[in-house]
Structure prediction request, 231 residues.
Amino acid sequence: MTPSPPGKRISVVVPALDEAAGIADTLATLRPLRGRGHEVIVVDGGSTDGTAEIAAPLADRVVRSGRGRARQQNAGAREAGGDVLLFLHADTRLPPEADRAVLEGLRRSGRGWGRFDVRLSGRPPALRVVERMISLRSRVSGIATGDQAIFVRRKWFEAAGGFPEIPLMEDVALSRALKQRGRPLCLRERVVTSSRRWEERGIARTVLLMWRLRLAYWLGADPERLARSYR
Prediction:
């Protein structure tokens, strides 16, 4: 097991809402990071299925906040004690020794934030194309999405004002603010994120929907209206 660089600590912030079916598995994969001195904070947005109770013994703390991923992640950041904040969706798994990759990558590059490449969990061959497109698009544009496990130095996060508390595209908005200070560190190590929404809605249909929503956001559409379209 490779130790983390001395004097640096990562706070992994996991926003959750009614994730009882999978939160234990997600947190179990983070046990090695906790063993190396990092912390895991689960932020529950009002679950009614026992998510918070399941998470409590598997995290350093469980924070309760109002519903909304941006609001939840900001609440977790306020409670965090780490030098680097890593925002992890409840249906996403970090690669082995992600802490080493993040801390050494930030140190070597001198950058203030970054994200991982992504792998979708499902088997359909079309998903292999989608995941490559996601990683390539992010590498070219310098914009990260939440399912890529965004990580950021605490000072950069605070200077950017945290996540804008909007109902959709909060990850894109934060990326835009951080990019003004510097481009992201694009790690080639891959997180594995659930492909459920892609397979349930249809892969091609989901790709088109996400591109349409992002284009509308860039053109100034109201995030509240975009969130209704997404739902």
